[in-house]
Specification:
alpha/beta; globular; single chain; 8 helices; eight-stranded mixed β-sheet; Rossmann fold
Length: about 290
C-alpha cells in the first residue's frame, strides 16, 4: 500500500471516529439509552383495581376500586353506583373508565356481597328493600363514600358520585343527605324529590342526564321534580336526550328483552362528555 493511500485511509477513519463520538452523536445515544430504561415503566403503568370488603350495619358488602398507577399524588375520587341489577361488570367498567380519566373510582355495593342478577323481578325486590328506608339508603351510600375517601390516592376534599338507573336515584339521595361530595351525576335515574328537610343545607351540585323517551318517568313527574329542586334552592342542571329510553348508556340494555330499556350510543357518548365538563367545573382550581 502506498503512503498516499495510507494517509487517505487514516483521514477517512478519523472522520468516521469524529462522527461516531461527536457531542451530538453522544447526546442522541444517551437519549436512546434513557428511553430504553424508561419504556418498561411505561409498559407497566396501567389501570389497577382491587376488591374491597366492607360493612354497613350487619350487611357484608364488596366494592370495586380502580385507579391509574401511572399518576402520582392525590386525585379526585368518584363513587359509582350500579343499576338495579347489582354491582356487575358494567359498573366496574365505568369505574375503570373514570380511572383512565385520572380519577380514583369506587364502584359501591348497595345490595350485599354477591347479590347480582339479570332477572328484573329479583332486581326490583332488592332495589325496593334498599329504598324502603331512606335513611338506611343514604347511609349505605355514605358508607361506600367513606371507603373511597379513605384510599391513599384519593383527595378526601375532592369527591363526586355518579349513578345509573337505581344508582342515579341513589346519588341524588346522597346529595340530599348533605354528604361531602362536590357534585353528583344521575344517568337515566329515577328522580326522587327532595323534601325541605332532606335538602336543608345541601350544597352539592347536580347534573341529570335524562332520556326524553324514558317510559318510567312521566313528563308530569319530571316537571314536579324540577320544581322541588328549585324549592330546595339546589344547584342543578338537566340534559335531556331526544329519543333516548331508559338505560341508554348501557350497551347490554337490549339483551334483557324489555322494550323500555334501549342502548343509545349517541346519548351515551354525549352524556359522558357532559359528565366530564361537569367534573372540570367541580374540581377546577380545587
Amino acid at each position: 500500500m502506498t503512503s498516499l493511500n495510507s494517509n487517505r485511509i487514516s483521514k477517512v477513519v478519523l472522520k468516521e471516529n469524529h462522527k461516531r463520538f461527536s457531542p451530538a452523536t453522544m447526546l442522541h445515544r444517551l437519549a436512546a439509552f434513557i428511553l430504553v430504561l424508561f419504556i418498561p415503566s411505561l409498559c407497566l403503568a396501567e389501570i389497577q383495581s382491587k376488591v374491597i370488603s366492607y360493612q354497613h350495619g350487619d350487611v357484608q358488602l364488596e366494592g370495586f376500586l380502580a385507579w391509574d398507577d401511572a399518576r402520582t399524588g392525590k386525585r379526585p375520587g368518584i363513587l359509582v353506583v350500579h343499576e338495579w341489577w347489582g354491582l356487575n361488570e358494567y359498573a366496574r367498567d365505568r369505574a375503570r373508565q373514570l380511572a383512565a380519566l385520572g380519577y380514583a373510582a369506587f364502584a359501591v355495593d348497595m345490595y350485599g356481597k354477591g347479590q347480582v342478577t339479570t332477572h328484573p323481578d329479583q332486581a326490583a325486590t332488592w332495589m325496593k328493600q334498599v329504598q324502603a328506608d331512606v335513611k338506611q339508603w343514604q347511609g349505605r351510600a355514605r358508607t361506600g363514600l367513606a371507603v373511597l375517601q379513605s384510599q391513599e390516592m384519593v383527595d378526601p376534599q375532592r369527591l363526586a358520585a355518579i349513578g345509573y338507573c337505581f344508582g342515579g336515584a341513589t346519588v341524588l339521595q346522597l346529595a340530599y343527605s348533605g354528604a361531602d361530595v362536590k357534585g353528583v351525576v344521575s344517568f337515566h335515574g329515577a328522580l326522587p324529590m327532595p323534601t325541605g328537610q332532606q335538602a336543608q343545607g345541601a350544597d352539592t351540585k347536580i347534573l341529570i342526564a335524562h332520556g326524553n323517551a324514558d317510559p318510567f318517568l312521566t313528563e308530569e313527574h319530571v316537571r314536579k321534580f324540577r320544581q322541588a329542586l328549585d324549592a330546595a334552592n339546589l344547584d342543578w342542571q338537566m340534559v335531556v336526550y331526544a329519543g333516548a329510553r331508559h338505560s341508554f348508556t348501557n350497551p347490554g340494555a337490549d339483551a334483557h328483552g324489555i322494550d323500555a330499556l334501549k342502548y343509545n350510543r349517541q346519548a351515551d357518548v354525549r352524556s359522558w362528555k357532559h359528565m366530564q365538563l361537569f367534573f372540570e367545573e367541580l374540581f377546577q382550581g380545587s
